[in-house]
Every structure is written in C-alpha cells, then in structure tokens.
Amino acid sequence: MNLRNIIISLLYLPFFLFNAILRFLRIEDAKVRILLMHDIPNNKHDNFASIIRHVSKRWNFISPEELEGHLSGAQSLKGRNVLLTFDDGFHSNRVIADEILDPLGIKALFFIPTGFVDMRGSRALQFAKTRLFPFSSPQDLSDGAYDAMSWEDIASLVHSGHCIGSHTDTHPELSSLTYQEQYHEIVHSADILSAKLSIPIQQFAYPFGSIRQVNKDSVKIAQTRFDTSYSNIRGMLDEQVASNFLFRQNIVRNLLKNSKVRNEFCQGTLDFQRYCKKK
Fold this sequence. Notes:
Blueprint: H1 3-10, H2 12-24, E1 31-37, H3 45-56, E2 60-61, H4 64-72, E3 80-87, H5 91-104, E4 109-112, H6 121-132, H7 151-159, E5 163-166, H8 179-197, E6 203-205, H9 216-225, E7 228-230, E8 249-250, H10 259-267, H11 272-278
Parallel strand pairs: 1-3, 1-8, 2-3, 3-4, 4-5, 6-7
C-alpha cells in the first residue's frame, strides 16, 4: 500500500463523521457523482460487487436518462445520486452488466469505440496496447484479457435497458488530429453505433478525457452532435463547466486492490477537502 492510500485509510473515520454531520444538519446539498470504470478482470468481479454494495448504502444509482433530465431541468434530483459509466467496450463490461448490475436494477452508460468492437485475442491486445493504453503497459497479458464486446453483446446491453454512447472509432488523442479527422472520429463513430443498434446516440466520452488530449475543435464538434459529453477529469457534477465536458470519478485498477480506499473514494467520504476549499 502506498503512502497516499495509507493516509486515506487513516483519515477514513474523521471524513466519515464529517459527512455524517453534514447530512444530519442538512448542510449537504443534492449531489450527483459520475463513476468511470474500464475493464473489470475476472479476479476483480467480487471487488466491483463490493463497490456497488458499499456505494448503494449512501447513494442512489440513477440512469443516464435521469441525469439528462436533471441537466436539462426537466427533473430535479434530490439527495445523493450516482451514475455508473464504462469506457472502451471491453467484454468484461457485458459480464458485469449481466451478473451484477442487471439483478440489482442498475442502469449504466457504456461508451464504445467502434473500431474495437468484435476484436478478440491478439488483435484486441494489440489495440489495447497501442490505442487504449499508449502511455502505459497492459497489466494482464493473458489470452482474452482485453477482448472487446461484440455487436451482439452491445445489443444485449441495450435490450437490458442500458445506454450506449460514442467513444470515437480508433480512440485517438483528438488534439493531435485535424478538424476533419476529429469530425470523422467523433461523428462517424456515433452514426455507426446508431445504424448498427437502431437507436439514437446522444452521449459521448472523449478518449483519455484530459485537457491535454482535447482542444476547442473536439469540444465544438461534440457539442454540435451530442446532448452530453464526458471527460476523464475528477470532480462533482456541480463543478462542471458545461454539459459538453462533464467530470467523472475515474476508478482505476489500482483502486480495486484496497477495499477501504476504493469504497470511500467512490461514495464521497473524501469530499471533505473539496468542501473546505469551497468554504
């Protein structure tokens, strides 16, 4: 366990009590948190289920449609609300949905890079290495570890009531592309999803999702094509600048290793620091 995780674990109780006092005194405003996950390997399914159980004790899981209603003003959310999102279209996402989310009635939002769909084995691993994780090495090199969902898998998610969003075609650094190349990646991929699944595609997630990997063209194109677009920058919904660059809490694989850290990070105990900065 690294120093950061040790400190978070030690501060768990005071942070927990602080949040409990806010709720008791009704100081806490309505909250919306968006969680971001990627591949959930087989040996981490129990950890993921633990996250869901823990978060559900203090937060209400909402659907993408409920978030859209909240953002448009058509619906007012109250209390603590969380939306679950998945990027990159790994086959493990379908398994997680079937085995954990569907039995609990939780509806999630899955962002799909169309160029990755149907890839298996060495082709999927190569795509993961070069397109999804170009700045790091995949942690699991076993056969099938990074298989993508098929079109049948994605259609099954839609049939189960989940939402599908666009995540470009080849998962590039958009800021390195020309305007026309960005337009193709962002708009054409959404059109493919819509045609394949016979549904409107109204949500988009920027690949990598940091400020460095997008530019004004990326945001402009996404804004003209989609109702909402999602970044990979941590923060609460009430801190976001506009609906075309929503903040999310990125739950990386390392957080899945420590139960206390991952649970408190997800459910908001560590919002103490953000609350104090605002005051």
